[in-house]
Each structure stands twice: as C-alpha cells, then as structure tokens.
Write a structure and sequence with these properties.
The chain is of the alpha/beta class. The strands form four sheets. Strands 3-2-4-5-7-6 form a six-stranded parallel β-sheet, with helices on both faces. Strands 11-10-9-12-13-14 form a six-stranded parallel β-sheet, sandwiched between helices. The protein has a six-stranded parallel β-sheet with strand order 16-15-17-18-20-19, sandwiched between helices. Helix 3 runs parallel beside helix 5.
C-alpha cells in the first residue's frame, strides 16, 4: 500500500520525536492530520492558533518532544504569525504545518489565498512548499534546520493534492546533528590565561545555554572557579538561584539594573555562555568597557551589536567550560557580588498586600519543583526578580518578543506533558481576557494547573510609561471582569483573593483537588509603582 504525502510527513515528524500537534483544523489540512494520526501523533484542538503554538512550546519544555503547530489556509496562517515570530526570537524549534490550495488552482481561485511563504519567510529559519517525490528530503532538511544551532521555527506549506496523493519514495535518512565543536588549544590557552589573571571575573548565560542543556556544566564551573553567574530571564535556573554565587535573572528591571550593571562594568574578564542579548532592554547596550576581555561561547555568530566581544568561540558550552576549568583561587576580594545579591533581596522584598506579596505567598505555598509561566506585563518583571528557580525551564515566558496571552497556553502545554509537576500560570487581567477561550481547552483536556490572575483593571506597564513620559491616560484602563464566574461557567474552579490568608488556603485547596483553579487576586491600580 502506498503512502500519502501526509503519511510521509507524519512519519518523519514522529521519527524526529514529535508526539503532539496543536492547532485548529480546516479542510486544507485534513489529510495532513490523518497522516499525523497514523504516525502516532496526537492532535490537540485549541481555540486560537496563537495559543496552539504556545502550548506546543510548553509541551516541548516539559518533554523535549519536537513541537508542531497546524494551521489551515489564509486566516489560520495569519492567526499564527505572532507565535511563529515568538518562536524565532525565543529560539523554539517549532514545526509550522500549513495547508494550501494546489498551485494550478491558485492561478484562478483567490478565496482565502495569499502567499504564506512570502509572509512567513522573515520570521522563520526556513520555509518549504511540499512537493510529491521529495517529501522525505524536505522533512529531513526541515527537522535539521529547526533543531540545529539556535533552534527556531520552520514552515512547511502542504498543498492539498500533495497531502492526499499517494506516492512511493525511498526512505530518506535524517540529517545527523553535528558533533559538538571543541575549542582549539590556542583559544583555550588564551582564555585560561586571562581567567587566571582575573580578580573579578563574571559569567553571563542565557537561552542558548538552556537549549544546550548546559546548566550543570555552568553551575559546576562557577562553583569550582568561585565566579558569580548572571543570567537572562530565559536562563533562570541554569544554576540554582538559591546558590550564593547566582545573582539571578536580569535584563528588564531598572531597579535590578542599578545593582547588577555596576558589577558588569567592574568585571575584569567576562565569559558569555550561551548568552543571547535579544532578551535585554536598551540599558544593556555596552554594559562593560570595550577594553574588558570578553569571550563569547555561542552556537551561532553574534551580529547583534549590543556589546563588545574580544573573541568568539563557536563551540560546545559544557566542553569549553570543562577545558577552561583551572586552579581555583579567591575572586572578587571586595565582596561586591555578595553585596549585590543582598541588595537585590532587599530591593524586591514584599511589603503590604500587593503583587509582591502574592508572588512570595505562592512561592512558599508551592512545592520547590513547581513550574511557572509568566505573561507579559508589569507582573512579569517583578515576578522574574522575586521567583527563585532551582533548575532550568521552571520559569516559562516570552522573553524576547514579550507577547501577551502566552502564559496560560505555555502552562497548559507543560501540564499536558508532565502531569505530575505542579504548574502555575501567572497572568494579568488584560492578558487573560485576550485568551479567555483557552480556559475551555484546559477543561476539555482535563488538565491540572493553577492560574493566578493579577487584577488591576489596567495595562499597568503601559500606564506607568504614559505617566513617566507625562502623557495623558488613554487606552490603558478597562472595566472589571468576574473571572471566577467565567471560570466556573467553563467548568473550572475560581475564587476571588484579597488577602494572604485566603490565598494560602485556596492554593492548598487547588493542589489537593486537582483540575484547574483560577485565583483572581485583586491588587488595585498602580500596584506596581516602585516595585521594579
């Protein structure tokens, strides 16, 4: 029996480790979905393609399974633009499958038809149009491109006739991943010599270190050498943030910048371990003198121009750090990193009822292994400073594109992939309203997770920027939504939270009963003033 094009595509994705595909069906992808199902890939229906892409990412963080998003022609593709751009900037190996009409038909039929590839090419690593007879080769390329170097999205446009048509192709082997590149002896010698002389060295790590699984190597190197670690928000947990050498995640908080950026400026040697400054605010441009020795260990050539680098090492992060490990000696004799860590704790300590107390209370009430997702907004900056992560991929967020309505589907995808791990989605009220339909998806999937919505009836971060620039208040305030009632209408549990005691009690109840609980925490307007 011959395979359909959909069968070949589905089988290639299953062999590459995919287990689930997320999206919304349309007539143009039905044969493609059949092929995925026959390959053992489960299709998960969502309410919006944007959420489907974030669920795919969350599932990837939990399981390592290759993430797949499926969208039909025209409006389905257009709906997914945001999450595909997010995958490109946040380094997610998303396979984006879209349906399209056959080329001959498109010459005389225009309903819902536009050039998917032209729209998507600026925000994907590659875009393919499936063709009979070359599907295996195309899929081998697509998977290799999506997962190599800095991971990123790859688009595959599949004409209906190709997905439905039968074909016989010889098997095509997957393109093997390259062996980890090792630094040259000369590079090791130069770096080690500079490190040996350094009294105030620093390591900065980020998303590429997470994707490389370099957390244990970074933690071991920093501890052996006595070197402090600074991470981006995406890099939180590369080293247990309870460790005295870990200075936490940074990049968006002006308050934390005042404490951390002077440390960068005083460092006499900096190792960048998988650090991609795409996450960082403008204050992180040129954060150290051009004369500072800076060695960039990276999977890809950095062309961002954000800061100076002395030498680029396009090498494996763990192997390179092992090669650079030398004889430990005292570092930072003035103790400034320890002082900075203490200053950060004091700067973000909670006082009175408000978002900081909400975060602190939940951190205490939840198990250490809890995974959280954070939506974009004022709460993200504050929570990213307060929440200590013991391991990578325990704080999920859109850190480069910083898009709203990502938190709930990120948490949902993780909960689907790792049901035994407690998951909490933190989201502002505007972000939750943007994606309310996905509460029904959580119900239908029977997931267990907590949603903590911070209710202040305002786009707080934008409102703060308006005030700081002395602009009039406009377009940032909105009315109240009864979120617990909405949750209950969708078959979930929900309650209002106005104090610590209720929050502690309802969190315990949520953990005990399972399912989805929405904790609507009323924090009041302007609750973030002065917090970050």
């Amino acid at each position: 029996m011959s395979d359909t094009g959909g069968d070949i595509i589905g089988r290639a994705l299953a062999e590459a480790g995919a287990t689930h595909a997320f999206g919304i069906p349309g007539g143009e992808v039905l044969a493609l979905m059949d092929g995925l199902a026959r390959a053992g890939i489960t299709f998960v229906l969502v309410k919006h393609e944007n959420a489907g892409g974030f669920m795919a990412e969350g599932h990837w963080h939990a399981t390592g399974a290759l993430p797949i998003l499926v969208a039909t022609i025209g409006p389905g593709v257009a709906n997914a633009i945001n999450v595909v751009a997010n995958a490109e900037q946040d380094r997610v190996p998303l396979i984006f499958l879209t349906g399209c009409v056959d080329a001959a038909l498109a010459e005389t039929y225009t309903h819902q038809v536009f050039d998917h590839q032209a729209v998507l090419r600026p925000i994907v690593k590659a875009s393919f149009r499936a063709a009979e007879g070359a599907l295996g080769a195309m899929m081998a390329k697509a998977v290799a491109i999506a997962t190599s170097g800095q991971p990123g999205p790859v688009h595959i446009d599949v004409p209906i006739a190709v997905a439905e048509g039968t074909t016989s192709e010889p098997p095509v082997a997957r393109i093997p991943a390259p062996a980890p590149a090792l630094p040259s002896a000369d590079q090791v010698a130069r770096c080690r010599e500079t490190l040996a002389r350094a009294d105030r060295p620093l390591v900065i790590a980020g998303v590429d270190a997470v994707n490389a699984g370099a957390g244990p190597a970074i933690a071991a190197f920093c501890r052996h050498e006595g070197i402090p670690l600074v991470t981006s928000y995406k890099g939180k947990g590369l080293m247990d943030e309870a460790d005295p050498l870990c200075l936490g995640g940074h990049g968006l908080s002006p308050k934390s910048d005042k404490i951390i950026l002077p440390i960068l400026a005083e460092a006499d040697c900096i190792l960048l371990a998988g650090y991609d400054p795409i996450e960082m605010r403008t204050g992180w441009r040129d954060p150290w003198p051009a004369t500072t020795p800076v060695f960039d260990i990276t999977p890809a050539l950095r062309t961002h121009g954000m800061h100076s680098v002395s030498e680029t090492l396009m090498t494996d992060i763990p192997a390179t750090l092992e090669a650079l490990t030398g004889t430990p000696r005292p570092r930072w004799p003035d103790g400034k990193p320890a002082d900075a860590r203490a200053a950060l704790e004091a700067a973000f300590a909670s006082t009175g009822w408000g978002p900081a107390v909400v975060f602190e209370t939940l951190r205490s009430a939840l198990p250490p292994e809890t995974v959280i997702s954070i939506d974009s907004g004022a709460h993200r900056i504050l929570l990213s400073q307060q929440w200590r992560a013991p391991a990578p991929r325990q704080v999920l967020q859109s850190t480069a594109l910083c898009t709203m309505a990502c938190s709930v589907p990120l948490a949902a995808g993780h909960a689907l992939g790792a049901a035994e791990t407690p998951v909490v989605a933190f989201v502002g009220d505007a972000g939750l309203e943007m994606g309310l339909g996905e509460l029904a998806t959580l119900r239908d999937l029977g997931l267990s997770m907590i949603i903590c919505v911070l209710v202040d009836e305002s786009l707080a971060l934008i409102e703060m920027k308006q005030r700081s620039s002395q602009r009039p208040n406009q377009g940032v305030d909105f009315g109240a939504t009864d979120f617990p009632a909405v949750a209950e209408a969708m078959g979930l549990a929900g309650c209002w939270i106005d104090d610590v005691e209720t929050l502690e009690a309802e969190t315990g109840a949520a953990l005990s009963r399972g399912g989805v609980t929405l904790l609507a925490c009323r924090i009041g307007r302007r609750a973030y003033d002065g917090t970050f």
